[in-house]
Design goal:
Blueprint: H1 4-24, H2 27-50, H3 64-84, H4 90-124, H5 142-169, H6 181-216, H7 223-229, H8 231-252, H9 260-282, H10 285-308, H11 313-319, H12 342-350, E1 354-359, H13 361-366, H14 369-381, E2 385-390, H15 400-407, E3 415-417, H16 418-424, E4 430-434, H17 443-446, E5 465-470, E6 490-494, H18 497-509
Parallel strand pairs: 1-2, 1-4, 2-3, 4-5, 5-6
Helix pairs in contact: 1-2, 1-10, 4-5, 4-7, 4-9, 5-8, 5-9, 6-8, 9-10, 12-18, 14-18
The structure holds 7-thionicotinamide-adenine-dinucleotide phosphate (TAP).
7-thionicotinamide-adenine-dinucleotide phosphate (TAP) is lined by residues 91, 258, 260-261, 360-362, 365-366, 393-398, 400, 435-439, 469-472, 474, 476-478, 496-497.
Length: 511
Amino acid sequence: MEPGLLTIIYLIASVTFILGLKMLSHPETARKGNLIAAAGMTLAVLGTIFIYRDPYTEERLHNYGWIFGGLVIGGIIGVLAAKKVKMTAMPEMVSMFNGMGGACAALISVIEFNHFLKESFVIRVDDPLDSSVLGQGIGVDYGMLITIFLGLIIGSVSFAGSMIAWGKLNGKIKDWSFKGQHIVNLGVFGLIVGLTIFLISTINSSYEIDNGYLTNTAKDVSIHALVNIHTSVYVLFYLIFFLSLVYGVFFVAPIGGADMPVVISLLNLFTGVAAACGGFLYGNKVMLTGGILVGAAGTLLTILMCKAMNRSLGNVLIGSFGGSKVAGTGAREQGAYKEIALSDASVVMAYANKVMIVPGYGLAVAQAQHACHELEKLLNEKGVDVKYAIHPVAGRMPGHMNVLLAEADVNYEKLLEMEEANAEFPSTDVVLILGANDVVNPAAKNDPASPIYGMPILDVELAKTVIVNKRSMKPGYAGIENDLFFQPKTSMLFGDAKKVLQDLIGEIKNL
Ligand code: TAP
């Protein structure tokens, strides 16, 4: 049972998780929110290690060597990974860490399944020799068994899927699919569900068949020993484990690269639910709360991202958007584009009333956020009103641009969300696009054959002049050409974003 102190600790930890999540929704409070939630988690972990008692045996945890060994090794890996990771590789890391959560949940189920067979039945047998006691209170704890299987299946899918997502995001794994894959996926899923139902009923019948046997035999015979006769129980259990891993791979492998953020957020949801199963198994309220919060946050984020791209979740999972196939405008003849010299670009901006900067993935690659802020300040000194138009999926993770610009101390008030920015473009003199591509691609509005058709975009072409900075005419993440670059209003300013911004700053200073 949980002593009162532990209940209070868990309550405090749960409150810090909720507070932390709330604070993460604003760049100014995000760091603090993260620290508060981490402090709450530390408190919950220490409380569990030193105060928690097993609900059946009333024993405290005792494997301190293993526990602290794991904590230290995991802590060191976590700190090093967090320090080393580049901002552009954050989605990969999120995916990897999410996968580890899924693996933990699956392993908890593996361990608890063994405990279940060994202990859960026996605990309920008061006296195997007294036939009057047998049959009363003995039986299969279905709630626990179903939770174990849910944790196993969801955790394994989340682990395997996250590993594939990780490989895709860092370019090590290519999109992979075969004809009829969705049918095969459905088949594997059906098999997992069927085997699980069969196994649960097998465990139940093992007990019932052996019930009479138990009544007539020696007192040392435990149900575990009887269930153990059926090694097929274990074989089936590990088969379900294996098939769930296969399903995780098959589920994520065909999904296009540009849809990975939605998939990662969906896998996050899975890990949350799998962790909540662990909390349920251990009767651990803080684990349950943490899992539910992760699951809820993952659900909301998945819905929000689908909305930002104007697509249904089904379409994301089956549509293969952003995959290796280049469709739509990619095949069309684009005509000519024009370039603008640095000096001309600096004059156009310095004498504008209003400049809107559109940051994209390239800004993060170039680490040009500080130079960008410097340009903004310089233009402000010249009386130019400068704002930023933030597309919800610009970059490679939700909030990527917000985090990047917050790092350079850009005033949060200057960041306009897509709808606000779109309302301001008609009154904007110059749009400066810094390493963005898909999020300003008009094909999303006017080319039904395009894989990004239907995704809301920043309507930059409504402004008077559009300057696009990128290094070449190569496509962006979705792998498709961009009509915007060939429009009469648009001029290309080629080069690495940081270098171009520094040069622009130099030019404007000399005006
Ligand atoms: P992208 O469409 O990927 O375009 C980025 C552009 O930056 C590229 O065309 C590239 O052109 C340019 N670039 C790269 N390095 C540069 C550098 N050093 N200096 C200047 N430019 C550079 O980016 P976006 O417009 O931000 O759109 C994001 C895309 O990623 C969407 O398709 C979205 O669905 C997807 N996605 C989003 C997320 C989230 S949640 N944000 C996660 C994963 C994927 P050059 O090579 O010619 O320089």
